[in-house]
Design brief:
Belongs to the UDP-glycosyltransferase family. The chain has 2 domains: 13-254 and 459-488, Rossmann fold; 270-451, Rossmann fold, CATH 3.40.50.2000. It is built from 18 helices and 15 strands. It has helices at 22-37, 48-53, 55-63, 93-105, 107-117, 133-139, 152-164, 201-215, 230-239, 250-253, 272-282, 302-315, 353-357, 371-380, 393-403, 427-439, 441-458, 463-480; strands spanning 13-17, 41-46, 67-72, 123-127, 144-147, 177-180, 187-190, 219-222, 244-246, 289-292, 318-323, 344-348, 362-367, 384-386, 407-409. It is of the alpha/beta class. The structure holds uridine-5'-diphosphate (UDP). The site of uridine-5'-diphosphate (UDP) has 19 residues, from α1, α13 and α14.
Length: 489
């Protein structure tokens, strides 16, 4: 018999399941921690190495009365070495393709887990990439909530692009200006900056599948907050008729802002130079340092690394540059005496990004516009030099530079992964964008105001705090009214 409203109910239980990349797993763990802090029992399904990268977030959540458990399943056998499980530093297209196949192979352990535990689970929070999870969850009458991990702005742009397919009626010149229809702002991008279906039929088809599955889902969770992109929250609900809960910035909401040194590092381990960068920052004047990091998946060519090094030098600013594993051997790319003689510090590998962004010495962030990094900069009130490469990054650049006006672009024009060729961006242009961001006082003011709004959103009574409560109430009401019939959401 279905429980009734007045019955004492056990806590809600949510299953979190995301693709095996740091940029997907870190915000998922943060999000699980914030639901756990509100009394939800959270389970994360992931693989062994990835479990080690989110261990510090999970442990912290559990010491502060939350309940997050991690169910570890084997890394799918796709013929990759064990170190490749992190998904970063993959050295060839073949390795990259194999890694992407794990997204399909994880369906089997996910199905097995659901078969044994479906009776206890109130909702599955699934990566959008796992489009098939909508049917697996529906088979057990469990609502599937998508978490793609991007901004509402980028999500709306992609939706407009997939729906209208503007490429069909325009020149295939990458310099063609394309306007995305039906959005709250006028958004125009160059064809070369977009996911072009002629060049990328597989990616386009995958996104069609993802969006179709999301439309059939119970709703969507966003690592964002209403005050950041109110027109897009409204667009999502009123125009697209989709349910969305904006619960971020999750890196703030989970409370992990207090102790985040090893957040996301494999086995929680940081190199001495990585820890040393915080001491180096301590010695620098307020807002004098540009933080330079392009997330976990961006690799520049040796020529581009050299131009970037020269650009940092020419800018005349202090800089802290994080070079991800897999990048070109930097010793070959740098000018003599770099970086110390040039006011800089380099970290190779993993760095404590949230701590760096919140350090008083940091006054700007050169970023690839991955959504987590972008939102972490917004939360810290730091303006950005934007250098997008692919995925949602060009959309996020528009949001940062044109809608929020807290960034300046370096002029990236080609949507391409690290395995493809990019037009070289010269040192003078790089230096000029850095100078603009580091001196623009109005931009700093706007960035600081946004940071304050971000922090308020996750406080008790803030918009993100309320959206968490709203979703929990809906899930509890759904439980109390009895499960819908099999196959129904
Ligand atoms: N990150 C970090 N240290 C690093 C590199 C990345 O803590 O040295 C974190 C960063 O704070 C963010 C995530 O990894 O939470 C990267 O996600 P994002 O969406 O910005 O970029 P991606 O790596 O997915 O392209």
């Amino acid at each position: 018999m279905a429980p009734t409203e007045g019955d004492e109910q056990p806590p809600l239980r949510m299953l979190f399941f995301r693709f095996l990349l740091p940029g997907h797993l870190i915000p998922m763990a943060d999000m699980a921690a914030l639901f756990a802090a509100r009394g939800v029992r959270c389970t994360i399904l992931t693989t062994p190495l990835q479990a080690s990268t989110i261990r510090s977030i999970v442990d912290r959540a559990n010491t502060s009365l939350g309940s997050v458990d991690v169910v570890v399943v084997p890394f799918p056998d796709v013929g990759l070495p064990p170190s490749a499980e992190s998904g970063t530093g993959l050295t060839s297209k073949d390795y990259n393709d194999r890694f992407l196949r794990t997204a399909e192979l994880l369906q089997e352990p996910f199905r097995r887990f659901l078969s044994s535990h479906h009776a206890e689970i109130d909702a599955v929070v699934s990566d959008g990439l796992f489009h098939w999870s909508v049917d697996d969850a529906a088979e057990h009458g469990i609502p599937r909530i998508t978490f793609l991990g991007t901004s509402m702005f980028a999500r709306s742009c992609t939706e407009a692009m997939l729906r209208s397919n503007p490429f069909e009626v325009c020149s295939d010149d990458p310099a063609t200006v394309i306007s995305l229809p039906g959005l709250p702002h006028r958004v125009v991008e160059l064809r070369g900056q977009m996911m072009d279906p002629v060049k990328r039929p597989h990616e386009w088809a995958l996104f069609q599948l993802i969006h179709a599955a999301d439309r059939r889902s119970y709703g969507e969770l966003f690592n964002s907050f209403h005050e950041l992109e109110p027109a897009y929250a409204e667009h999502y609900r009123a125009t697209l008729h989709r349910r969305a809960w904006l619960v971020g910035p999750v890196a703030l909401a989970s409370g992990s802002g207090k102790d985040v040194t090893s957040r996301g590092a494999v086995a929680g381990a940081l190199s001495p130079e990585s820890i040393g960068c915080l001491r180096w920052l301590d010695e620098k004047p307020a807002s004098s340092v540009l933080y330079v990091s392009f997330g976990t998946m961006t690799i520049f060519s040796p020529e581009q690394m050299r131009e970037l090094a020269r650009g940092l030098d020419l800018s005349g600013k202090n800089f802290l540059w994080v070079i991800a594993n897999g990048s070109a051997s930097t010793d070959l790319c740098m000018p003599d005496g770099f970086p110390m003689a040039h006011r800089g510090y380099i970290v190779r590998g993993w760095a404590p990004q949230v701590l760096i962004l919140n350090h008083p010495a940091v006054g700007g962030y050169m970023t690839h516009c991955g959504w987590n990094s972008t939102l972490e900069a917004v939360s810290a009130g730091v303006p950005m030099v934007t250098w997008p490469r692919y995925a949602d990054q060009f959309h996020n650049e528009k949001l940062v530079a044109e809608v929020l006006e807290v960034g300046v672009g370096v002029g990236a024009e080609d949507y391409a992964t690290w395995m493809e060729t990019h037009r070289l961006i010269g040192s003078e242009v790089i230096a000029e964008s850095i100078r603009k961001v580091m001196k623009k006082e109005t931009m700093w003011k706007k960035a600081e105001e946004l940071g304050a709004k971000a922090r308020a959103a996750v406080e008790k009574g803030g918009s993100s705090y309320d959206d968490v409560g709203q979703l929990m109430e809906e899930l509890m009401a759904r439980r109390c009214s009895g499960r819908t019939a099999r196959g129904q959401l």
